[in-house]
Specification:
The protein is α/β, with parallel strands linked by helices and 193 residues long. Helix content is 35%, strand content 12%. It has 8 helices and 5 strands. Strand 1, helix 1 and strand 2 form a beta-alpha-beta unit. Helix 4 packs across helix 7. The chain is globular, with a radius of gyration of 15 Å.
Length: 193
């Protein structure tokens, strides 16, 4: 089976005014990608990472081993869906993980300004099995548009694992990267139906 893991990271739309030398290290949750890659490979999936531009910037400097070997192309984080040097491989299913509010809103609105957004938006039209595993805090989740976007994607047959079945939003600045429910996303991807 072929799979696609589209990876999102926070602040993909906001420039960071803090100079690089003062900025905290890249979001540590993105550094845990070896967990779902290894787990998916153990159950027979071929894994292809498609990164949002923010995730691409954070990961390509240290892309080695499982992560580096699973990247679709060196330009997979490009803002142009046409910029990939080679197309993403055929896919049977998509896990959209570390789904931020920004990407959730754009995806639900069919805004395909990046390769990752283009492929997950197209996946709905191709009737691919898609599982979305959010990552945002409870203050962001309380915004009325979030519930509408989640419901819209669910109506489009996207399995959105938000709440007790997947990711439970945390208090602002209180996220626990080791508790991110990668396995719930992979289990839903492998489930029949």
């Amino acid at each position: 089976m072929a799979s696609l893991i589209a990876v999102d990271c926070a602040r993909d739309h906001e420039p960071n005014p803090v100079p690089d030398r003062l900025r905290r290290p890249a979001a540590p949750r993105a550094c845990r990608l070896e967990v779902p890659i290894r787990a998916a490979k153990r159950v027979g999936w071929d894994v292809c990472l498609i990164l949002t531009p923010s995730a691409h910037r954070q990961l390509t400097e240290d892309a080695e081993g499982e992560i580096g070997n699973s990247l679709a192309t060196p330009s997979a984080g490009s803002t142009s869906p046409l910029a990939a040097r080679r197309p993403a491989p055929p896919r049977d299913a998509i896990l959209v993980a570390l789904l931020t509010n920004n990407t959730l809103a754009k995806w639900a609105s069919a805004i395909s300004e990046t390769l990752a957004l283009g492929l997950i938006t197209e996946g709905i039209g191709l009737d691919l099995k898609i599982v979305a595993l959010p990552h945002f805090n409870d203050a962001q989740a309380a915004h009325p548009a979030v519930a509408r976007h989640v419901e819209f994607l669910r109506e489009a047959d996207v399995t959105v694992l938000l709440g007790v079945t997947g990711f439970t939003p945390h208090k602002p600045k209180q996220g626990n990267v080791d508790a991110y429910p990668w396995q719930a996303g992979l289990d839903a991807l492998c489930a029949d139906g």
